[in-house]
Batch of 2 targets.
Target 1
Amino acid sequence: MSRRMVPAGSNRAGPQQASAVPRVFFVHDIGATFVQKDLALLRTFCEVTPLLFRGPRDYFRLIKGLLRCDIVYCWFALDFAAVAVVLAKFTGRGSIVASGGWDVARFKEIGYGRLLRRRGRIAARIACSIADLVLAFSDWSAERVREVAPTSRVRRAYLGVDLDTFWPGPKEDLVLCVANINRENIERKGLRTFVRAASSVPEAKFLLIGRWWDEAADELRDIAPSNVTLTGWLAPGDLREVFSRAKVYCQASYTEGFGLAVAEAMASGCVPVVCRTGALPEVVGETGLYVPYGDESSLAIAIREALRSPHGSEARDRVRRFFPEEGRREELRVAIEDVRRNRTRAAASFAPTGPAAVHRVKR
């Protein structure tokens, strides 16, 4: 798409006149499913240029891309987002930060959260305070954003699930948990508790699905009973097929900013078993069972009850009401429009009105 020339007398530091289709510079540092979904949704109504930010060497690409956009959209309030929103402000671009997870968390008891480090607190405060809009993916996440940046313009925007992709099938006595397997997640996502609880539910098969990042997978295999399988990573189609067959989805986490895998499993007719922590109660509501974090006996009892539950359809209905993918798309569309409109008004208010008239006095 060709770019329009900046008219004479306008602010040269500001963005070029807005095109009919918003130009969004999409910056992220991970390829997580929820990040890729936002990228795909934005592309349905914006001209999007993505940047996978891998480190300091990418700051030049960040600056270059920002100068060619109307709005910069950053996933997580990290260092690159702080730099991006500051540059956006000084050059008259709009800025949006999607936030509300590890980037604004601080849990000393499990060593989790970037706010445990001073640098993380500074970056999150700058990114969330200066951004035109912060999209938090749950009410719980929005509160974490306000704690680190009280003046932030934060709005809740739930993540979404494609209900045409995730669909219930014939159910089996199958219990799932999806998580990357590493030292951090053994603690935060309660993976050790999940594996140990399986020994008390021998009639069911347990699958722990996710990439193995370190030796944590060896520890889990060593303590796992025979009815537990660590599958490693599954392709999206295979994961959806397993979801469709499972009766129960377990997320025994210490905290979650949202829990997209929980919502996807619910859309597939799984009965959720979770801890009453973080945003999980927002996602699950009254459609699942709750257990204390780290209590494998309570988890086993709840899983057995969930295996007998006929309420998987209620879990799917909750996703349809509160977390449909089209709802996330609409939130993004409104966010882009609001930021773009506000930036246009701000630019107009500072635009020069032309040279003042000079009145000559006759002598």
Target 2
Amino acid sequence: MARSGPRRLALAVAIRAAVVTISDGVSEGVRDDASGRAVAEVLESNGFEVAAREVVPDEQPRIEAVLRRLQDEQVPLVVTSGGTGLGPRDVTPEATRAVIEREAPGLAEQMRAAGRASTPLAALSRGVVGSRGSTLIVNLPGSERGAVESLQAILPVLPHAVDLLAGHTAHGPADAEAVRPDHEHDERPERHERHDHPKPHDHHEGHPDDEEQPGEPPGSIEAHLEARRRAGQPTVLATAVRTEGDPPCRVGQKILLGPGGAVAGTLGCAEFDDAAVADAPGVLQRGTPATAAYTHDLGTVEVFLEPFAPRPKLVVFSATPVALHLLRWGADLGFDPVLVEPRAERVTPAHRATARVEPALDPGDLTEETAAVHTDHDAPFVAETVTALLRSPAGFVGVMGSRRHVGPHLEELKARGFTDEDLHRIRTPVGVDIGARTAEEIALSILAGVVAARRGAEPRWLDRDRR
């Protein structure tokens, strides 16, 4: 499809964005996600970094949960596609209004005006635009053409809107000059002599995390934070929230810290950054946010230190309908979902849009917080992967299926040297007894068991008779 529109943007720093396709058909794997793909292409061709692609059905609670999670993950721009019309299941505007704190009606009207130039039906779109915290949420129509035209209509102002939500309130060259740090003004050399502001990383010599690690993106602190969370690396984000006097730091400046030192950003001077580096291990160990005051001879800055622990992994084996719901809801429960499926032909677009897909299990990624569930007892790799799970510290190991179906796998595991105590770690049938029948209900039963095991609760387990 040929696309025309405004000239491409030239962004100094890539803005992270997430594209959320809202469609029953796409979520069930029976329709191609043409609009989501087209929207992602337009964003990426204009310098945005599409850090996430999600698919959810036309269900308001599910839509709200995804929007809230993406804002919690500090994604600056969230663009939805679909569910903006007058159909009975078109609930995207209602879900968005339930989540946002402020509307931006001018942007929504600009998109409708652009659409009416192509078709009068554009007037039926009910999409809204608004902000939640520092995240801008934009509703686009579900058709590929409508989504692209609407996005292109507001594309030129999106970077500035995102900057404003992030607290960068410059509106023009004069204002931009006014908010630059004083030491950057050529006409103020005496201030430059009073306190030497380092560029990010200038003061980090000797810290193990000084160099950008392989696989970490250059650019924004948010991009570094997301990359480290995806890699399972504990991180602390330190943000200046208040100043007294005239310290070499502005409110809103940030530094990202790992266990070994600074990763990206700066609080304005080596003294402040080194103090944050020293406080980071304690914040990580406690696992709760903290505030600290750092003093410079020119003033004091109050800093909010927020820990980001690695999300525990939910490893789901086999691309089945139950797996799809486990992956979707597992993310809502705070897990990092991973689908392991060596049979590529079984993986649908809905699976790929929901979680990372790997052809094989990596035992090195498993921790005591890992939950692993087999959703196909007929898969040819059950015994091999369960062997790896039992030899790992994984905290929850489940295999779907009756004892008749799973029995041969257990016998093979015994032949491999596993004891009854070892096999006792396997939940099979897996989940909590709620009378589940459908794929959704079975997934709910399994996740209820995962949560119960994590919290130390004792529900009515499906495998209680075996124990």
